[in-house]
Write a structure and sequence with these properties.
The protein is of the alpha/beta class. The protein is built from 14 helices and 28 strands. Strand 6 (157-162) and strand 7 (168-173) form a beta hairpin.
Length: 584
């Protein structure tokens, strides 16, 4: 494993070099960073490209913008004329924040996956690219490279790049190949050898576990400093086959009854952990924008505060996006079906918090207060409450950090950036994220055994070991038995246990939902451990278990555990231990 040169925890943000072209007050340049640069400790400059060879498709930025004139194949190149000026300004901010690391991000969604695929497939091409990266870092003062390949083994595609509402440039992409993952590992292995321990290497990594497998995350992990999980865009609206409303970045999966893809931030993080990726090498991404659909005619919160609503094609987006389900773009973002958080604030959506997914929903019951947003626009987005939930989850899991995509979309007050979301991400530093869990902001109920007689009662179990740490590898060896619902089963050690939600019942709530958070309520008579459940999908009339939190009895010297539950079959879940901390 490499020794990371990144701060811990990483409070990161992507700086978008295209935001300089937005209309005021949403224009974003390094000048706007000055109000937040002492809060973040890693800034990813997006994006740079590298030149294709002659056998590859030649995109408009090669043929028209001439970015590769005088360059060799696989040379790293700047994209925007002001990039060198911006590089200097941002790297210069280290004088204000000596902890700041500045990293050049190479690639992005509009950069052809085929270019990466071709480059990594040949050792000579890899060596040339690595040397070019080193020269680029040395020339401009970057601390490392972020590899944003979207994505290994990808299918062929054509990206429509909006220049104006009337002008689009096409970027054709021949896609990747099955060997991409193994070749990607070779690239970062050779890059690590060339960079030594000083140069930082990060990977903008896929949230979908199938695509993460194509990326060979297990192979990459030993050579890189961090996976920047692109844990957003779980659903988008600006495509022709997205007819129902869905979350952009939900912490937990939506109920199956919504008909939405069963994915989430928690699912991604758990998937990476299951694949053997150390949590300290993961940073969770936070999208500073929402995805919008057009669902006119809803009159009450009960109607619109939900996922799975049938949308209507509004037809207001530009060019090839006009017949997608994306609502008209935000006034400044100009991207079909997308509102920046600052635009969401200005539009004056009526909002609600979806407790199941821990995500925010907005709806324009009437025309927006911005004088732009039409009545009937429905949006899923992130706000300070949902970002806090993600940050708390990152703390519990012991993640290495979090990052914003992107910093230019954060909140504004009176025409100035106020950075409400970034300040929530910065709360990662408020506590030790590897040892101290936070209360989960959800309701709760008490677990009973199948016969409703035995409850998890510390009075009866006093003196027993209800949590253990293996002496050899420090792994947790606790389980709730599927045999008799006690805290042991034939003296066997296990890392997980299977429970059937249909055999559980919610008797009463021991926790109080108050001011947006759980206020634990302890039963002094029975010294009862509490389970905290999400208000998840109903299963046989009962809430399905998505998370369980053991409340610690301060008078006992045992341990408190965080566990999650993964669906195995209808009503059946597997509970897996994730972290531990001492009661005292």
């Amino acid at each position: 494993m490499c020794q990371s040169g990144l701060p811990s925890p990483m409070i990161g943000a992507y700086f978008p070099n295209w935001a300089q072209y937005r209309k005021a007050p949403a224009t974003y340049t390094p000048t706007q960073l000055e109000g937040i640069i002492d809060t973040i400790n890693v800034l990813f400059y997006g994006f740079a490209y590298f030149c294709p060879n002659s056998s590859m498709v030649q995109p408009y930025w090669v043929t028209q913008l001439k970015l590769c004139d005088g360059k060799q194949p696989f040379d790293v190149v700047s994209i925007e004329p002001k990039d060198p000026q911006f590089y200097s300004a941002i790297v210069g901010m280290k004088s204000k924040n000596p902890k700041l690391k500045v990293i050049i991000s190479i690639g992005g969604w509009n950069f052809p996956s085929n270019f990466y695929s071709g480059m990594v497939s040949d050792s000579t091409s890899r060596a040339h690219f690595i040397k070019s990266c080193q020269n680029f870092m040395s020339s401009y003062g970057f601390d490392g490279v972020d590899l944003d390949w979207e994505f290994p083994n990808s299918p062929a595609r054509t990206d429509e790049v909006k220049i104006t509402c009337q002008q689009f440039d096409e970027t054709k992409d021949d896609g990747g190949q099955a060997s991409d993952g193994a070749n990607f590992v070779e690239l970062v292995k050779e890059m690590r050898a060339a960079f030594g321990t000083d140069g930082i290497i990060t990977v903008a990594s896929q949230a979908d576990m199938k695509k993460a497998g194509w990326e060979d995350i297990a192979g990459l992990a030993q050579y890189i400093d961090m996976f920047n999980l692109m844990s957003y865009d779980y659903t988008v609206s600006d495509i022709a086959d997205s007819p129902i409303t869905a979350p952009n970045e939900n912490l937990y999966p939506p109920p199956a009854s919504t008909g939405i893809w069963n994915d989430s931030v928690a699912t991604t993080i758990e998937g990476y952990i299951a694949a053997g990726i150390p949590p300290s090498k993961m940073s969770v991404g936070v999208a500073y924008y929402g995805h919008a659909w057009y669902v006119p005619g809803l009159t009450s919160e009960a109607d619109w505060c939900q996922y799975g609503l049938k949308a209507t094609i509004q037809g207001k987006c530009c060019g090839p996006f006009a017949q997608t389900y994306g609502a008209l773009y935000g006034q400044y973002s100009q991207l079909c079906g997308t509102y920046m958080y600052s635009e969401i604030q200005k539009a004056g959506f009526t909002t609600c918090f979806n407790n199941v997914t821990q995500s925010a929903i907005g709806y324009a019951e009437k025309a927006g207060t911005d004088g732009y947003t039409a009545a009937g626009v429905w949006i899923s987005y992130q706000d300070p409450t949902t970002v806090k939930a993600i940050v708390d989850f990152a703390k519990i899991k012991g993640l290495g950090g979090a990052f914003a995509f992107d910093i230019s979309m954060d909140s504004m007050t009176n025409g100035q950036f106020s950075y409400e979301l970034t300040k929530e991400i910065a709360q990662l530093e408020a506590q030790n994220i590897t040892t101290t869990p936070s209360p989960i902001p959800i309701g709760g109920c008490l677990y009973h055994s199948q016969d409703s007689q035995h409850m998890l009662n510390l009075t009866q179990l006093e003196g027993t070991t209800i949590a253990k740490v293996d002496d050899t590898d420090a792994s947790l060896v606790w389980y709730l038995s599927p045999c008799d619902n006690l805290l042991s089963c034939n003296d066997m050690k296990a890392n997980s246990a299977i429970m059937n939600v249909a055999e559980m019942k919610c008797d009463k709530y021991l926790s109080i939902w108050q001011n947006g958070e759980v206020i634990p309520k302890y039963d002094e008579n029975d010294k009862m451990w509490q389970f905290i459940y999400t208000n998840g999908e109903q299963c046989n009339g009962l809430e399905s278990v998505l998370q369980v939190y053991w409340m610690c009895d301060p008078n006992m010297h045992n341990k408190s555990e965080m566990v999650v539950a993964q669906t195995l079959a209808q009503c059946e879940y597997q509970m897996v231990i994730n972290s531990s901390f001492a009661c005292n």
